[in-house]
Automatic annotation (TrEMBL):
InterPro entries: Glyco_hydro_43, Glyco_hydro_beta-prop_sf, Glycosyl_Hydrlase_43. Residues 1-23 form the signal peptide. GO terms for biological process: carbohydrate metabolic process. The lineage of its organism: Bacteria, Pseudomonadati, Myxococcota, Myxococcia, Myxococcales. Belongs to the glycosyl hydrolase 43 family. It comes from the Bacteria. SUPFAM superfamilies: Arabinanase/levansucrase/invertase (SSF75005). This is Glycoside hydrolase.
């Protein structure tokens, strides 16, 4: 999160996937040290431009032909470009194309030449500058929608008469949907909130996220910011960040069939977890990301926060990591892997990670942490190995040890592709303790119920888990009992799971999708057509 006063901030210089991600390098790579709040503009598959928060006075611009190696192009100094005003505490630029020219939106403060910056009683706002060509020599910054009642550039601290969501404060992002250009931005009220408008119809404002309009969980700390949009296979995605920039900062997203539907009324999906060590102190955070496509492959470009031993933020730099998509369009996460295994009665477990370089981090999660549990979420920190940080792309396999007498000899191993969110290991002679079900999101406000098909008779039990329990959730752990009819249906006697969805309780017109089940698997993903 960028606070209202930016002084401190600016002192911090498996699932079936679409595409061919498995054959690719899924490692996390550093693109630009000390650069925060990254934005990438794609001119074509062989020309990209990277910008972001620099030293607070200049906005740096970098160029690349492969989205990997970036070279410095130039700085933009709005104070030098403007004969009347000086600008300071510049952050979160957005680079876009309008016709044959280019625009740079950025957040900051503006004062008359030579005046103290920022002045008392002024709030951060957003300006836009234009360049005629790809030399990216931007001219004098201009306010947005000046002298109107539309969302606009405002340096005052008060909310506008038309509402706080008309104050364009920070984190602007432009998006062209083919018919209209949109401007997304952040405004302040009870925290940070995200809204947007069509540039062709600025009088209508769409509220997408934030505590002033929607209920937000405590771990987001009242902060929803850094919106970016992209479209894939007919779906729109809005990625955004939650939490304070020096605290629980993390990446989230929502998916929908249209831009106005991209709100917290949809499922909010977590894309990253801030890393904490075994003492609970922050080690690493991730945020302010943009998803960029090159030749059919997608990459998450984000800034990564580094913390000292006391958990204090020390720096932020921009990284790139490949992202893949699940059958329902959901993205793989940055640093989460759900690891599951079947149960051996009376046994305890310990988890190692085998790295691509052939070394082993073990135990990564010891028996002290796992005990007799049959699943864990690997989040990037091996807390039983001195809090070593291991990214998903470094991992070649997960290795699980099992013992009923504290002698740790037997183990099973499962190869890992460096990108998936789910891994299951099978212990010889083990039994299935649960099935984690996940399914696709349907219409906004849809509710769901779960049916099971018996293997012995072929009959469906529906609902097995009713809407009163499932409600709007997109996941459920089935443990062998159909709660609604009050009967047990063991995993071995299940032939298929079926998910049904309805809006406003209209189950007579429910939409359903099913997935076959083999009686042993620990995870099943169901797509509702």
């Amino acid at each position: 999160m960028k606070p209202v006063r930016a002084v401190l901030l600016l002192s911090l210089l498996t699932t079936t996937f679409a595409g061919s991600a498995f054959a690719q390098d899924n490692s996390r790579t550093l693109l630009m040290q000390w650069l925060a709040d990254p934005d990438v503009y794609k001119e074509n598959d062989d020309l990209f431009f990277l910008t972001g928060t620099g030293n607070g006075v200049l906005i740096p611009l970098y160029e690349s032909n492969d989205l990997t190696a970036f070279r410095f192009k130039r700085d933009y100094n709005p104070s030098a470009a403007d004969p009347t005003y000086d600008y300071c505490f510049l952050w979160a630029p957005d680079l876009s194309k309008v016709g044959s020219s280019y625009q740079l939106h950025f957040s900051g403060h503006r004062v008359p030449n030579g005046a103290a910056c920022p002045p008392a009683g002024q709030e951060v706002t957003t300006f836009v500058a234009t360049a005629p060509d790809l030399n990216l020599v931007f001219g004098v910054p201009q306010p947005i929608n000046a002298n109107t009642t539309w969302p606009r550039t405002t340096t005052g601290t008060a909310c506008l008469p038309q509402g706080c969501n008309r104050n364009i404060r920070i984190d602007s992002a432009t998006f062209n949907d083919g018919a209209d250009r949109w401007l997304f931005y952040v405004w302040f009220q009870n925290g940070n909130n995200i809204s947007s408008f069509k540039l062709s119809a600025p009088g209508t404002v769409y509220n997408h996220a934030g505590p002033a309009v929607f209920a937000t969980p405590a771990y987001e700390e009242g902060i929803n910011e850094a919106p970016e949009l992209f479209k894939r296979d007919g779906r729109y995605y809005m990625v955004f960040s939650g939490g304070w920039y020096n605290s629980q900062y993390a990446m989230y997203y929502v998916m929908a069939d249209s831009i106005p539907e991209l709100t917290r009324a949809r499922a909010v999906r977590r894309q990253s977890l801030p890393l904490k060590n075994s003492a609970g102190r922050l080690v690493q955070s991730h945020g302010h990301n943009v998803i960029v496509e090159r030749r059919g492959e997608y990459f998450n470009i984000f800034h990564q926060g580094a913390f000292d031993s006391a958990g204090n933020l020390t720096s932020r730099s921009t990284y790139k990591q490949r992202v893949a998509f699940k059958p329902d369009g959901a993205m793989t996460s940055l640093n989460q892997v759900s690891v599951r295994w079947n149960r051996l009665a009376g046994y305890s477990y310990s988890l190692d990670v085998v790295l691509k370089n052939g070394s082993v981090v073990g135990p990564c999660t010891s028996v002290v942490l796992l005990g007799q549990a049959n699943k864990t979420v690997f989040d990037g920190v091996c807390r039983s190995a001195g809090d070593r940080v291991v990214t998903k792309g470094e991992i070649a396999a997960f290795r699980l040890f099992y013992s009923n007498n504290n002698v740790w000899g037997p183990s099973v191993e499962k190869a890992y592709d460096g990108i998936s969110d789910d891994v299951s290991l099978e212990l010889p002679g083990g039994v299935t303790p649960f099935v984690d079900l996940e399914w696709s999101e349907e219409e906004t406000l849809a509710q769901y119920s779960i049916d099971v098909q018996r293997r012995d008779t072929g009959a469906w039990i529906g609902p097995c888990i009713g809407v009163g329990a499932v409600n709007k959730s997109l996941s459920w752990t089935y443990t062998g009992r159909c709660d609604t009819p009050g009967i047990n249906v063991p995993f071995s006697n299940i032939q298929a799971f079926r998910m049904c969805s309805a809006v406003n309780g209209d189950w007579a017109h429910a939409r359903c999708g099913a997935a076959a089940y083999d009686g042993r698997a620990l995870h099943s993903r169901i797509n509702i057509p």
